[in-house]
Write a structure and sequence with these properties.
Helix content is 51%, strand content 18%. The chain is an alpha+beta fold. Strand 1 and strand 2 (18-24) form a beta hairpin. Helix 2 (43-54) crosses helix 3 (63-77). It is globular and about 30 Å long.
């Protein structure tokens, strides 16, 4: 896979009316976009949902880590 090992790319998203930047590897940005399309939700809305879920965790990870974990759990659930 060409470009698999690429450094994170920073992008801005809006969560609850606040802009924030998230750094994810291009692979994870692609997977996140696909997940949003499959759920027929805007990317910002999906990120906001993941953020809301992560802050309820006993020891919440950072947002980028939470997105990666959410995508991995989604992949495993689909197997």
């Amino acid at each position: 896979m060409e470009g698999l090992y690429h450094p994170p790319v920073k992008r801005s998203v809006e969560i609850a009316g606040h802009k924030t930047s998230i750094s994810l590897e291009p692979l994870f940005w692609d997977l996140l976009r696909r997940a949003a399309e499959q759920e027929r939700a805007p990317l910002n809305a999906l990120v906001a949902r993941i953020d809301a879920e992560r802050i309820t965790a006993e020891t919440p990870p950072g947002l980028a880590g939470a997105i990666r974990l959410w995508l991995a759990a989604r992949f495993l659930a689909d197997r």
